[in-house]
Amino acid sequence: MKQKVFYIILLAAVVAVQSCHKSERREQTEVPEIDVALVRADSVVIHSTYPGTLVATQEVDLVGRVDGYLLAKDYKPGDFVHEGDILFRIEDRNYRDAVQQAEAQLSTAQATYNYASSRYDAMKRALESDAVSKMEVEQAKSAVEEAAAAIKTAEATLQTARTQLSYCTVRAPFDGHVTLASYDVGAFVAGEASPVALAKIYHDNVMYLDFSIEDAAALANIKARVADSPHLYDSMKVVFSEPLLHDYTARLDYMAPRINTSTGTMQLQAEIANPYGELRSGMYATIELPSAADPHALLVKDAAIASDQLGDYIYVVNDSNKVVYTPVKTGETVGDTLRLITSGVHEGEKYVTKALLKVRDGMTVKPLINN
Predict the structure, then answer these.
(1) Phi, psi of 353 (to 5 degrees)
(2) Residues near 85 by Cβ (< 8 Å), separated by ≥ 6?
(3) I need a labelling partner for 159 at 20 to 30 A (CA). Which of 35, 197, 315, 336 fits?
(4) CA pair distance 282, 178, nearest whole angstrom
(5) pTM greater than 0.70
């Protein structure tokens, strides 16, 4: 009987040991392997972001400066036109008549001058033989001078008439996009007394981004960096309120020589190439200006950062391989994949980079470092 009891106890012990081993193996197999990376430190240029507005490098009103009916509009609204292209034609009959009258007046003045000049030469020769008096010669000379002055007056009148006639044809002053016309064909344009705006043309193959800085410390820092490293501001990132098909960078082009006393700000201007024609005057954008350098900036992969109602956070894996929910404060992106962390983590800490939805705070994991 005792031997039988012994065997039962021995069997129970074996079963218990096997069960414990199975439990340990199951626990070991249930610990997931998670990709992690190390928080790293690097020297990074810090940027400050400023809002601004796009303007074309040139914005000009196309105006009618004569009186007459609008005969033609030789473009479609929004067209890209070239310098010298005809955009509007205004009735020119009265102005062509004025040119012809001025040409006739000039011909008359030239004929009068020729006659007066010939008579003056003859009077001078006659004076040598005392055939005429000196007074008559002086009168002939005065007639020549009057005729010469009349020619100049006629030439000026003709030039004015031709200029007025040229205003009947409105041409593009430079390459650019043209807006809707303010007048329809057939409308009367009364522009002689005061120019009338017919449309506007934008020279927008290159755009300007106007923005202002009010932080005196940042302003002083930017001025110093511009003096030391001007090329640092040749390729600044620009982000638009609406996503565009292409990425854009800007070059710092202008810094106002003085502070605006009414606003306490200083105006800056950056130049942006517009090769695809996507950019338009009036668009809102933000520009990232290099403002400082951090020789020991903390960086994590941007994809490892998640957000909830409390803000941004990452999952840190501590020395016990436990996942720790860690709130962080983030800065700008660095390159295409990294994000600057201003507080919340330390250099060398492990953080989860993948499968964020599969981990939770306090979970035990097997970290696989993959930087």
Answers:
(1) -110, -20
(2) 74, 75, 171, 172
(3) 197
(4) 15
(5) no
Confidence of residue 263 (pLDDT cuts 50, 70, 90): confident
Q: What are phi and psi of 136, to 5 degrees?
A: -65, -35
Residue 63 β-bridge partners:
197
Whether residue 9 is predicted with pLDDT greater than 60 in this model: the reply is: no
Tokens of 279: 């950019």
pLDDT score at 13: 53
pLDDT in tens, 145-155: 999 999 999 99
Confidence of residue 16 (pLDDT cuts 50, 70, 90): low
CA distance 225 to 227: 5
